[in-house]
């Protein structure tokens, strides 16, 4: 009989649901080495937690995360919380010997991230950081083309992560817009994904120049009970200062000599969750658009002259990463599937007692780049990574 692993999840909002779905679906579609048991769901509001647990099939609930983390029957702690809360839960979970599946961005700063990595290593637990876009079949295909030499020497990386949920000046001052709860704005939430993808596809970043800006500097105070939602409500007319940036732009030099740009904003009207990247090299190019996430556009300089042009590859063949476990070729997948892929790879890493990427070391490296960006934006100077 298959071994089972008990999962305890902390957090039950957007990511709590995305992760719960993944724990349930992974063993149904993939041949995973162990059966994840949705054992305990943890959150502060008992009524909402009960509803979440009932809906997603979590066996028990707990309102004290410390009790959850110290339970001897829990094998995996799933941190589906805002970044402000990652450090405490991850440190306690690692010290209790639990494997950790953690939402991004890893932490509030590089000191926390470094400590989290150290404690995980000391306690020999598998640590995974959920930059889920790495696990899109089309992104895996981009990686394969690069590794196979089809793009050649990379010259350019160009990435934009654009959303529009705070264009309205009356959108409330939620936790995402305050430094003490979020650390930074799109630089943390969105550029963390973009930098992770750049590390994965292009390599290490050597220097960073950045600028950040604020379009709206004050907003109505949020009703805290709705603060986690993109449809958050205001409490009244009282306003408070926005203490994170509204948009963050970075120019980077990679260690390889390639150059790149990153644009992250919550003010791109019409862009709900627009993530695009382009990579240009000596042999070819690839471009990706999350709104067409099953596709990768590929240009090869080695195609016959007169026949060259970008081709659109639908990354849904059984040969494409993860796809043989889903539907027949051409039957597309969606956002939630990336979380399932992450769970599958995480369960395999636990079984093989190996590492999975991205992990807390990757998360630390990403946060160091994001911090360098914020330092550069403040000083107006280019910052060299150590
Ligand atoms: C909100 O901006 C958010 O949910 C991010 O936090 C996620 O990581 C991204 O996948 C979608 O947008």
Task: Describe the protein in words.
This protein is of the alpha/beta class and 386 residues long. The protein has 2 domains: 4-133, NAD(P)-binding Rossmann-like Domain (Rossmann fold, 3-Layer(aba) Sandwich), CATH 3.40.50; 137-292 and 294-333 and 366-379, Dihydrodipicolinate Reductase, domain 2 (2-Layer Sandwich), CATH 3.30.360. Helices cover 32% and strands 27% of the residues. It contains 11 helices and 17 strands. It has helices spanning 14-29, 46-56, 65-70, 86-95, 110-122, 137-147, 179-182, 186-189, 191-201, 335-352, 360-379; strands at 3-10, 34-42, 60-62, 76-79, 99-103, 127-130, 154-162, 205-213, 218-222, 234-241, 247-254, 259-265, 274-281, 284-289, 295-300, 311-314, 383-384. Strands 16-15-14-13-7-12-11-8-17 form a 9-stranded mixed sheet. A 6-stranded parallel sheet has the order 3-2-1-4-5-6, with helices on both faces. The protein has a two-stranded antiparallel ribbon with strand order 9-10. A hairpin with a 5-residue loop joins strand 14 (284-289) and strand 15. Helix 5 packs antiparallel against helix 11 (360-379) and helix 9 crosses helix 11. The N and C termini lie far apart (49 Å). The mean pLDDT is 97. It binds alpha-L-sorbopyranose.
